[in-house]
Design a protein that fits this description.
The complex is a heterodimer of chains A (113) and B (117).
Chain A lengths: L2 E3 L4 E5 L4 E3 L2 E3 L5 E7 L5 E7 L5 E3 L5 E5 L4 E6 L8 E8 L6 E3 L3 E6 L1
Parallel strand pairs in A: 2-12
Antiparallel strand pairs in A: 1-4, 3-9, 5-6, 5-10, 7-8, 8-9, 10-11, 10-12
Chain B lengths: L3 E4 L2 E4 L5 E7 L5 E8 L3 E10 L2 E4 L6 E7 L2 E6 L8 E8 L12 E2 L3 E5 L1
Parallel strand pairs in B: 2-11
Antiparallel strand pairs in B: 1-3, 3-8, 4-5, 4-9, 5-6, 7-8, 9-10, 9-11
Classes of the chains: A mainly beta (113), B mainly beta (117).
Amino acid sequence: AQSVTQPDIHITVSEGASLELRCNYSYGATPYLFWYVQSPGQGLQLLLKYFSGDTLVQGIKGFEAEFKRSQSSFNLRKPSVHWSDAAEYFCAAGSSNTGKLIFGQGTTLQVKP
Amino acid sequence: DAGITQSPRHKVTETGTPVTLRCHQTENHRYMYWYRQDPGHGLRLIHYSYGVKDTDKGEVSDGYSVSRSKTEDFLLTLESATSSQTSVYFCAISESGTSGRNVETQYFGPGTRLLVL
């Protein structure tokens, strides 16, 4: 069965520290991969996406993610976290035919001053 | 931001009553989706549409129906609401793809918070 797993439900980092959020997927073929961010009471905002090509993708707000086919992973990174990055982050895998997305459970990021 | 609105934004209803949620887009995108968001589950696809009057089921479609009579509107109906349908509902849209892709990135609306008592 297709699935997306985000192993960390909650992560707390200090402001200015580096961040890595993990995402693993199980899919029949190489899916399209996405990271979305959701602030409390808000909708989902696209951070970045991977369709093909360069496996290191850059997104908005200083985020990047690396697609590793051998590990079925698409981890999200940021070198220096800001207090405004506190939010919930969702990894998703999608079909190029239908666009149907499978989401991970989400990781809540807390940023300590 | 993608031109997506959802109405109502908040609704409280009673078990057994019908409820219809509306998603409206101004982007003229072909694909539209309804998801529900529940703690610990992320977002799960309820139904989606790949064109006017063309719809299909997602992974959690039981108890829900949809209709799309115009490109810009995608309606989600709970025929007889149950407490298990208390959730936050998100609509998303995406345009037809290019470069060998059928579908492009999904963009999400602001959500509708539904409470079924």
